[in-house]
Protein 1
Amino acid sequence: MRIIIDAMGGDNAPLEIVRGALNAAKARPGLEITLVGREAEVRRAADQCGGLPQGVSIVNATEVIDMHDDPATAFKVKKDSSMTVGLNLLKAGEGDAFVSAGSTGALLSAGTLLVKRVRGIRRAAMAPLVPTAGKGVVLVDCGANAECTAEYLIQFAYLGSFYAAKALGMERPRVGLLNIGAEDSKGDSLRREAYQALTEAGEAGHLHFIGNIEAKEAVKGGCDVVVADGFSGNVMLKTIEGTASFLGSELKGMFKKSPFTMLAALLVKGGLAAFKERLNPDTIGGTPLLGLQKPVIKAHGSSGARAIENAVYQAAAAAKADLSGEIAAHMELMKTGR
Amino acid sequence: MRIIIDAMGGDNAPLEIVRGALNAAKARPGLEITLVGREAEVRRAADQCGGLPQGVSIVNATEVIDMHDDPATAFKVKKDSSMTVGLNLLKAGEGDAFVSAGSTGALLSAGTLLVKRVRGIRRAAMAPLVPTAGKGVVLVDCGANAECTAEYLIQFAYLGSFYAAKALGMERPRVGLLNIGAEDSKGDSLRREAYQALTEAGEAGHLHFIGNIEAKEAVKGGCDVVVADGFSGNVMLKTIEGTASFLGSELKGMFKKSPFTMLAALLVKGGLAAFKERLNPDTIGGTPLLGLQKPVIKAHGSSGARAIENAVYQAAAAAKADLSGEIAAHMELMKTGR
C-alpha cells in the first residue's frame, strides 16, 4: 500500500507530520510512503527523526496552502503546493491514499476537483468516527455540506455504511437518521423524505436502516452510522467536543480543590488517563472524505506524530477496502430520481 | 403573583407536582397557586403533603392529556383536561403564568392557540437555559420549530435576549447565531440572511449581537443566548444531554474499578455531587415558551417536586418581567419584511 502525505499541512508541520509518517513506515514495513513538501525542510525533519527509512521517499513541492488562502481556489492558485502536488500524485496512480492535516476547506475543494467523486455521487462528505458509548459512531456529514437534499442524505447513508463495514470492520452497521424525535413524522420535510427512502432501502435489504435517531441516543451508542446534513452534523460534533471540554475542566477543578481531592486524583490516575484517551481525536487519526474515487483523509490541524501515524493506518485501511469500487457497484441504489 | 399549575401533567403527577407547588407556596408566601386537575386526586395528593396551605386553591378538570393523544388537537378534543382548563384560566386573567410537565407538543399547540402569540410574533419558541461553563446559555429554539425562516431566527434573537435580560437578570446578554464557523460567510443561506439582519440590529444598538458562534464555543460559555432553528437547536441540546450521560457513566465505571478508586470516589464525593447538580435539569425547572402573550413554562416530563418548585419560581420571574409587554414595545424591530 502506498500512502501519500502532505508533509506541510497542519500546525505542527513538517516535523510532527514527518515523524508520524516515519513511525508508521517503521511499524508496518509493507507501507510505502511519499512525503510531499519543501524538500530541504522535509529532509531536515526526517534527519531529526533518524533519517529516511526504507520505503519512504520525498517529492518536492515549493508552496504551502495556509489559512489565508481562499479554500475554494487555493489548490489552483498554488499549483505547486504540497496539497495540490500530493493529490495529483494520487490521481495519477502514484499512491493509493492521501493524508493531509492542512485546511479542511481547501482539501475538500481540491479533493473533489482533482481526485473527483465517484460517478453519480452528488457530494463528498466528511465522516469522522465520533467517540460514543460502544465502538463510536460514523457521523456523515459533519460539515462539508451545510445545505443538503434528500438524495445527498441517502447517499451519505450508503457511504457511511460501506465505510463502517469495509474500512472499520463493523458488521451490518446500524444506520440512523439524525432527527429530533424517533417517530416517522418527526423533523422537517428533508428528514421525512429521506426517512421514506431509507426505510424502503432498509426493507429491500440494501442498508440496515434503524430509523430516526435523536442526538442523545446516537451519543449513547444507539447506532453505528448517523446520517445528517452537514449543518446539524457539525453542531452535533462540536457540541460533543465542547461538552467534553467543559466537563473535563469542571472535573479538573474538582480534583484540585484540596489535598484529599488531589489524593483522589492520584488514585484514579490510570482511569482518568484512559478516559481522556477515549476522547482523544489523535487515537482515531482523521476524517475520511467519502465519495471520492480514492481515499483522502483529513487529519486534525493540530495533529501530532501519533495522530498522523494513525491517519496513515486509516488511509491504508480505506485503500484496502476499495470503497470507490463498492460505491460504484451499488450506484444504482443511490440514484433516487428525487 | 398567581401561578396556575397543571397538576396532572408529567410522569410523577399528581403527587410530585402538588408537592413542588406546595413547597413553593410555603417558601414564598406572596405566591398564589391554582392547582388544576381531578379534584379528588389533587386533594388526596395535597393531604399527603400536609394539606393545602394558604394561597393555594384547586380547580377541577376531569380529563388528562396523555402521550396517546395527538398533540395538535388534544387540547380541543379534551376540553376539560387540566392543560386546557389551566390555559383558559391564564387567558381569562385568572393567573399570571402557567406551568405544565405534560406533553410538550400538546402544550405548544394549546399555548399558541389558546394564550396566543404576541401580535407580530411568527412562532413561539422553546428556550431552555442550558448548563454550560459560566452561567449557562439560553438556547432558542430548542425544538418547537424544525423549519425556520430568517425572520423567525431574528425574532428568536430578540425573544431570547429579552428573556435573558428581564427574567434571568443577565446584563446586556451576548447573542450568538449558531453556525458551523465564525466567519460571516459560513453556513447555509438561512444563516447568512439572519446574520446580515442581526448584524444590522447589533450595529443599531437593538441587540448585543456577537456574530456566529460554533456549538463548541457556545457550550464553553461563549455567549448568553444562542439562536438556532429548532432542528439544530434540538441536536445541540440532546447532544449535551447524551454526552453528559455517556461521560457520567464512564466516570462511574472508573470509580468502581477497585478499592482504591472507590476510596477516591469517597474523597471527591462532595465535588461529584456538585458536578451532577450543575447538570441537573431539576435545578433550573423548565423551559419557557417564548413569544406568547403570557408566560407558559414547560417542566420536564420526569419532573419531581424540586423541579416543579423551581419551575414555579421561574414562572413568577417571567410574569414579573412582563416579557410580552417588552416584546410588543419592540415589535417594529422584529418585522423584517423579508
Protein 2
Amino acid sequence: MISQQMIALRNEMKKEDVQAFIIPTSDFHDTETVADYFAARKYFSGFTGSAGVLVVLEEKAALWTDGRYFIQAENELKDSGIDLMKQGQEGVPSIEEYIVSNLTKGQNVGFDGRTISYNDALKYQSAFEYAGLNLKVNLDLVSQVWTNRPEMPHAKTFYYDEKYSGRTISQKLDMVRKEMEKEHAHTYVITKIDEVAWLYNIRACDIENVPLPMSYAMVTMDNAYLYINQSRFDEVSRQKCEEANVTVCDYNQIYEDVLKMNGPVLLDPTSCNSRIAMSLTQTKVLKMSPIILLKAIKNEVELENTKWAHIKDGVAMTKFMYWLKKNVGKMEIDEVSASKKLTSLRAEQENYIEDSFATIPAYKENAAMMHYHAKEGSCAKLTNEGLFLVDSGGHYYEGTTDITRTFVLGEATEEEKYWFTKAMRSHIRLAKANFLYGCHGYNLDILSRGPLWDCDMDYQCGTGHGVGHLSNVHESPNGFRWRIVPERNDACVLEEGMLQSNEPGVYIEGKLGVRHENEYVVVKGNKNFYGQFMHFECLTWVPFDRDGIDASLMTADEIEWFNWYQQECYNKVSFGLNEEEKAWLKEICKPL
Amino acid sequence: MISQQMIALRNEMKKEDVQAFIIPTSDFHDTETVADYFAARKYFSGFTGSAGVLVVLEEKAALWTDGRYFIQAENELKDSGIDLMKQGQEGVPSIEEYIVSNLTKGQNVGFDGRTISYNDALKYQSAFEYAGLNLKVNLDLVSQVWTNRPEMPHAKTFYYDEKYSGRTISQKLDMVRKEMEKEHAHTYVITKIDEVAWLYNIRACDIENVPLPMSYAMVTMDNAYLYINQSRFDEVSRQKCEEANVTVCDYNQIYEDVLKMNGPVLLDPTSCNSRIAMSLTQTKVLKMSPIILLKAIKNEVELENTKWAHIKDGVAMTKFMYWLKKNVGKMEIDEVSASKKLTSLRAEQENYIEDSFATIPAYKENAAMMHYHAKEGSCAKLTNEGLFLVDSGGHYYEGTTDITRTFVLGEATEEEKYWFTKAMRSHIRLAKANFLYGCHGYNLDILSRGPLWDCDMDYQCGTGHGVGHLSNVHESPNGFRWRIVPERNDACVLEEGMLQSNEPGVYIEGKLGVRHENEYVVVKGNKNFYGQFMHFECLTWVPFDRDGIDASLMTADEIEWFNWYQQECYNKVSFGLNEEEKAWLKEICKPL
C-alpha cells in the first residue's frame, strides 16, 4: 500500500512540475551518521538501514541500497510500492539510468541540493542533461510534506579547551590560511561538521556518538565566519570566537553570504553540498578540503591526551574482559547485556562523554556478519563456547578510542584457534611495519591482508581507518585500503601524528568472526641515506585473549611482539584494576 | 675551453634570435636508448652519460643530470664552460628557473619540439610565458651545426611473423579501434617505436639492443598509416601492410598528414613529441596510449614463444654458471671477458638475435653501484672470493629475456650469505604472492622491499618492470614500484598475461651487491565469493647459487619454494647440457 507520505510527496512534486525526486541518506554536511531530523529517506520509504537512496517517480518508486541491507530492505519495503534496487548486482540500473529510462525529454528531476554533494550533483547533471531532462536542484519538498518532523539537533555547544585540542582558534586559522595561499584561494567554504568543530574548537552532542554541532564555516584571508544556531551557542565559545575575530552568524546565513565572497573560492567537491557549490559565480578551486589533512595530523597535545584516553579505555575494556571471562556460563549474559556492561565500565572512567559508536557485540556466527546489529530480546545468549567479538569505543575529553577484541568463551576449538591466530598474525605484521616516508596505506595493506589472500580469502573492508580527536571515529584521509577510491579522500601519505586503526579479521559465514583491532600513531624512525623511515606506535593497551592463540602457527618475531604487547598491557593498565583483576591480568599476560 | 660546436650553435641561436636553447637526451619517439644520430646532447656538451639536459645561453651553459653521473659529468665537463647542475640536490635550480633567472622579458627560448614530449613542452610553456619569455618550439639548430652527424638508423626491417606475434595487423587494428571508440577519438597518433612495431608486426635493429625501427603511425576508424623510411622497408612487411590496408608513407610525412586528420585526435602527452601535439588544431584526447596496455597483455602465442625463449636462455645462463664456477681462480676472467663468454653462449642458441641490453657484470663492490659499467681493460678481475652479479638478457625471435644471477666465487662469508639470503627471501615473498584482481604493483612491492625496510635499508629502484616481446626490455605500464609516478604510465592493474621482472636486491656501498631476478607472467588463480585471485607463473629457469644461501634465515615456506624452483630448473634446462654440466646441475639443484 502506498503510504500517506508518499502520496503527499507526489502531490508536491506535481505542484513543482517534477517527475522524479531524489532523496538520499544525508544531512547538509555529508555526515556519516545522520540525525533523526535528516532521516527523510527512512520517513518516506520505511526502510530503516543506514544507507540508501530513494527515487520517487509519478507512478513508481525505487530504493537503492547495498549488500548489507538486501534482506532487511526486502522485508521493510514489502507492499510499499517501492522497488528494491540491489546495488552492485548484475542488471540493476544506476539511479541515472532508472530515471532516464522512465522520463521523457523535457521532464524535470529534482532534489534538495543541500543533501547532495557537488560531485554527485555534477554526475546527475551530466547524465540528465545528456538525456534532455532538466534539473531542479533546490527543491525542499521534504519539509513541506514531513509534518511531524523531529527537531533539528541543537544540543548546547561547549568550547573544546586548548588543553585538549592543543591549538587556539587563531593558530588554526593561520594554518588554514597558509593552505589557502598555496591553492591561490581567497575564500574557503567548510561544510563538514568535523572540520568546523576542529577549526573553532567547538563540540556538541548533536548526533548520538558524534560530538559535533551542525554548522558551517567560511574563512577569507582577513575574516572568519561560523554559521550556527545562535541560541545553542555557549558563552565560552562565543568569547573565544570573538578573541579570534570570528564572526558568528545564523546557521542558514551562509547561503547568502557565500555569494558575496571574493573568488577564487576553495571547496571540496566530494563533500560540499551542491546548493552552495552550484550557487557560486566566482571561480572555484576544487580540492580536498585542507582541514582534512591538518586535522588528521594530531599535534603533541592531542597525542598526549589521546594516549591517556586509551589508557582509561584500556582499564575499562580489561575490566570487561575479566568480568566476561569469569561470568560467562555462570550468569545470564547476552550480546546486548554484555555491551551495556561495557558501556557502564567506560562510563566509570573520568571524562567519559559517550561511546564513540554503537558497540558491536557479535557471538559465534553473528560475528561473520560485518554489519551485525544485536537487538535487545532477539540477540544471542553467551555460553561457555565459541568466539565473542566486541567492537567498541569511547569519546573522552582527551580523545576518541576504537578497539575490537575477540574473546574465547570456554575452550577454543582447533579451528577457532587457527583463524584467531591467523588474524593475529595479520595484525602483528602490520603493527611491526617499518617503511619509508612517502608510503600510503595502499602500500602496506597487504601486510595484513596477505595471509588471508594466501588461502584465497579476504575481509571485505579496509584494514584500518583514521580516527578523529573527540570527533568522528572514522576520519579521512588516512587508512589502510588496497584500492584507491579518489572520491573518498582516503589515500594520503602516512604522516607523523596520524592515528590509524589496524583491524584485520577473518569472517566465515555461518560459523565465526575474528577481528583484532588496535589504534596506532604514525611516528618517525631513523633517517639515513635511504630516507626517513616511519613506523607505528601503539595506543591501545588491552590484552589479546591468549586462549585463542596457537603459537606453533606464528613466527618467532610474531611471538616476540605478542609477548611484548601483553606485558605492556599489564604495565600500563594494571594500576586501574582491583587486586583480583590484577592477579588475573598478570596471569593472562605472561609470555606464550 | 668553449668547443667549436658550442660556438657554432650560439651563432645559429643568434641568427634565430634565441637566447636559450634546450637540448635533451631524446630522439623523436621518446625512446629509452637513443641512436647515435640523436646524441646531440653528447655532441655539444662532451658528457657521455645516458641521461642529461643541456641548456645553452648566450654567455653560459649548464647541464642537468642525476646522481648516477655526478662524478663522470664533473670530469667530462671540466673546462667546457658548461656548469653541472646536480638534479635533486638542494639549491640546484630547475631548468625553467635557470632560464627565467638568466633571460629578460621578451627574449626567446627555443628547442626542437620533436625531441621534447608534449607534457614537458607544456610545462616549459607555462613557466616561460608566466615570466614573459617567448617559446620557439620548432627550431632544428642541431642539424644545421652538426656537420659530421651519424646517419639516421636505417636497418632493413623484417616482418615479425604471426607465429611469434600471435596476431595479424588487421586483428591489432581492430583491437586499437575498439579502444579509440571508448575514448571517442577519430584519429590516434602513435609516435613510440615499440608501439608502431607492435601494431604492424615489424622489427629492425636500429639501435643496439632495441630491435625496433624509427617510425610513426596513425590510425583512423577507416584508415591506417605507417611512416617509415621506404628504402629500408622489407617486401614481406610491405605486402602484409597492403593486405591490412595500411598506407606506407615517408618517415617525415606524418607532420603534414596529422594536420588533415579528423578530430578528436588521441595522443599520449607523456610521449608524443610536442611538434606534433602543438601543431594540432583538432580537439585532443590526452590519454595513456591504448597500445601500451594492449601490448603489455601478451597473447597465448606470445606467451608460448616467450616460455621457449626463456628455456633457451636458461640453458645458456646455466652453461655460463657452470663455466664460471668451474674456471674462476683457474684461468684469467674479468668482468668484461665473463660477459663476452655469456653473450657467446646465448648466441649459440637457435633464433638468438642480440642481447636485450648491455650485460652488467659487476664483481664485489662494483655490484653496489646500480649503474656500474665495466670497461674493457680497467674492469675487475674475478678471483676465488666475493660475489659476482650478472644482469643480462637476450632477444630471440620467440621473445625477450631479462635475468640477474649473483654468483658466489669461492666460499661465501657469513655476511655475504646473510645479504644473499635476505634478497632471496624478498624475491620468494613476491614470487609466491596470491592477490585479488585489481591489485597494482604498488600493492605488492612491500612483499619484496619489506625485509630491507625492516632493517632501515632500501634498494633505490623499482622491484620490477614489464618486459616487451622482442621489444624494449623495460616496458610500461606494469611494474613493481611503491611510488606512483603518473607521467611514467607505470601503475596499472596487474592483468593476466603481463610479464613482470622480480628483482629485489641488496647494495652495500664499497662492499657488495646482490640481486636475484626472474621474470614472471601474471595468471589467474581461483575465482570465488571474494573475487578473482591472481598469482605469478615463473618464466625464468636458472638455478640460484645455493652457495649463497643460509637456510636457517628462511621460513619453511621459503625453503620449500626454493627447493621446488631449483628442481624445476633441472627438469627444464638439463636437456640442453652436456653430461658433465648435467651432473653438476643435478648436484646444485638438490634440496637445501
